[in-house]
Each structure stands twice: as structure tokens, then as C-alpha cells.
Amino acid sequence: MRRVEVLVIGGGPAGATAALLLARGGRQVALLEQSRFPRRKVCGEFIAPPAAALLRSLGARLEPEIGRVELWAGERVLRARLPAPCASAMAREDLDAFLLRRAAEAGTAVYQPEKALSIDRFKDQYICETSSTPIQAAVVIAAHGTPQRRAAPRPSDLLAFKAHFRGATVPGDLIALLPFAGGYGGALHLGDGRATFACCIRRDALEALRRAGEPAGEVQPVVGLGISLAMRSAALLSRTLDTPAVYARECRKLYARALLPSALIAHLMPHARAPWMLTLGARLAAPSPAWPAACAARRAAPRRP
Ligand SMILES: Cc1cc2nc3c(=O)[nH]c(=O)nc-3n(C[C@H](O)[C@H](O)[C@H](O)COP(=O)(O)OP(=O)(O)OC[C@H]3O[C@@H](n4cnc5c(N)ncnc54)[C@H](O)[C@@H]3O)c2cc1C
User: Fold this and answer.
1) Average confidence (pLDDT) over 292-300
2) Which pLDDT band, with edges at 50, 70 and 90, does 77 fall under?
3) Rounded distance between C-alpha atoms, residue 193 and residue 172, angstroms
4) Any atom of ligand 1 within 6 Å of the Cβ of 237
5) How many angstroms is it from 302 CA to the middle of ligand 1?
6) Neighbouring residues of 287: CB distance < 8 A, sequence distance ≥ 6
7) CA of 38 to the centre of ligand 1 (A)
8) Residue-level pLDDT at 292
9) Which of 134, 290, 301, 305 has its CA 20 to 30 A from that of 278?
10) CA 2–ligand 1 middle distance (angstroms)
11) d(Cα 222, Cα 153) in Å, to the nearest integer?
12) Which domain, by its residues, includes 186?
């Protein structure tokens, strides 16, 4: 049996950031990640300003700087500047491997590939059965992402796709958003010669397209904020580990502040006529916290016994 203070399940942006900041704060942390890195992951690979700021403070070379957004809706193109500081882009195989490496350098014991199979509670401890030796921990952080399987498929299920292209003409400082009936997509440059195109489409819309291009409903996507929210909630957790109620309250606020405006913007996207709506949506959804200061504070915190 391995014993740690904090066990993190999942080595994506949320798990790796939580492990990194907790280890820097003096906690004894172990992390389980079931896949071998680097691994590809379906994602638009847009890094919103709060996450970009943390990544830069950790030494990531983030290029390009994305300062413009365009909405390509049929024949219509809306153009707007994104509020400073700049967003960026990074392939998920690079981003996730970078964060996990930083977590390991901060002192996290990373077990990979190793899967968490079950968790049982005994008094004030948890026992996690894994694909290897069990781990005992006082705190377990579930950062294993969205479950992939659901009992029964539903028409409103979102199916996601991603592809990398070379020779794309999307300018490096631009993110292009492409709403369409039943879904949305996004395209950007990664800065290494590749461009990412990712999209989500409702199950019923995809089936309708396969049948004969029938009209389908619309989704309310959250545009390019998932990584940033994952990392920000992880930072919040690293500050509030001993006060779960505070974490739950503040986390609800964090997500509500980000998700409501972006869902609204996403809903209005296909009908948007004014560029300022794009800028406003980005500003409301992703205010930039003082990441480097937060990280420095954790480093300076006294080590726990
Ligand atoms: C089509 C699409 C486009 C997107 N585009 C963007 C974008 O442009 N920008 C953005 O910010 N966000 C985007 N997102 C959202 C973003 O991908 C997620 O918000 C982000 O990955 C969440 O990070 P996470 O760490 O919570 O989970 P994940 O990234 O899913 O990481 C979870 C990790 O846990 C591991 N795991 C799972 N179960 C176990 C287990 N039992 N044991 C051990 N390990 C386990 C998994 O292997 C995985 O590595 C997009 C999502 C989709 C679907």
C-alpha cells in the first residue's frame, strides 16, 4: 500500500495544475493518469488569457498571441479585437505533458499509465484501488474529466471532432468561430506550422446530415474556456483544500461567472450582427486573475508537517 496526503485522479489541465500548486504549497501529492503522454485529445486548443498567464509563468513558450476573433456564419463575417491580455494556442499533447512535467518537478509522485479503479472510505482515509498497488490518501481530488459513456444516447449529446492541418490560411493572431445548425466549430494556428479545426455537433444534427441535410437544433457551446476553468478551479482548490464548503461555493461562482455569459454569447452567435458582442463575451467570460502572484504565494507558504 502506498500512502500520500493528497491523491489526484487525472493528469489533464485540472489534475496537473492542482497537483502542481498543492505540491508547491508543501503537500505530499500523488497523481494517477491512465494514459501515456503525450497523447492527442479532442480540443479546440485555444488557451484563454487566465490559463495563458499561468502557463507563461511556468515557463511555457506560448505562441502565437491571439488578439482577434472572427465569426464566420454563412456569408456573414464579424470581426472584433479580443481584450488584453492576449489568448494563445497550444496542442493538447504538448500542454498536458508540459503541466504534468511541472507537477512532477514540484514534487508530485506521478503514476502513469495507471488507472484508478475504485475508491472506498475507511474512517478519515480513502483507499484507491488502481491497476497497480492501492493508494491510501487523506484527500482525493477527482480530476478525471467528463465521463465518456452514458447509458442511453440522447439527441442532444454533443459529439466532438478535431483535426490538425498544414498550409492553412488562418492568420496566426486570429481565432475563427464557425456556428452552424446543430453545432459550432473553431479554427486557429498552433504556431508550429499546424492549424487546429475542432467542432461539436449534436447527435441528431449529425444523423440528419447523414440522412439528407435536414435542419437540426442548435447547441449552446462554451467557447474555448474549458482549460482555463479547469486550471482556475484547480488553483482555487489548492487554496481551499481544508475548507471544502468554501471551495464548493467559490467554484460555483467561478463557473457561473464564466459559463452564463459564454452560453449567452454562444446562443446569440449565429444571429450576431455587432462585433462588440464578441469582445464583450470574451471579457465577461475570462477575466484575468493574478496567477503569477497566486503561484508565488503558494511557494512561500510554510511546509506542512
Ligand atoms: C470539441 C471540444 C473543443 C474544446 N475546445 C477547447 C478550447 O479551445 N479551449 C479550452 O480551454 N477548452 C476546450 N475544450 C474543453 C477542454 O478540453 C476541457 O475543458 C479540459 O480538457 C478539461 O480538463 P480536465 O483536466 O478537467 O479534464 P481532461 O482534460 O479530460 O483530463 C482528465 C484526465 O483524467 C484521466 N483519467 C480519466 N479517468 C481516469 C482514471 N480512472 N484513472 C486515471 N486517470 C484517469 C484522463 O486520461 C485524462 O487525461 C474543448 C472541448 C471539446 C469537446
Assistant:
1) 39
2) confident
3) 10
4) no
5) 32
6) 50, 257
7) 14
8) 40
9) 290
10) 27
11) 21
12) 2-144+152-300
Q: Which of 144, 159, 196, 229 gets mutated to test ligand 1 (max ligand atoms within 8 A of its CB)?
A: 144
Mutate-to-test residue for ligand 1 from 34, 55, 148, highest number of ligand atoms within 8 A of CB: 34
Q: Are 176 and 195 in contact (CB under 8 A)?
A: no
Tens of pLDDT, residues 248-275: 999 888 887 777 666 666 666 666 666 6
Residue 305 lies in a domain: no
d(Cα 143, Cα 8) in Å, to the nearest integer? 7
- Which CATH number characterizes residue 213's domain? 3.50.50.60
116 lines ligand 1 (CB under 6 A): yes
> Is residue 162 domain-resident?
yes
> What's residue 148's pLDDT?
65
Smallest Cα–Cα separation from 29: which of 9, 13, 12?
9
State pTM to two decimals. Answer: 0.86
Find the mean pLDDT for residues 156-164.
Answer: 91
Q: Which residue has the higher pLDDT, 287 or 124?
A: 124
- Ligand 1 atom closest to Cα of residue 144: 34
Q: How many domains does the chain have?
A: 1
Residue 93 lies in a domain: yes
Residue 224 confidence (pLDDT) above 90? no
CA of 199 from ligand 1 middle (Å) equals 15
Within a domain: 292: yes
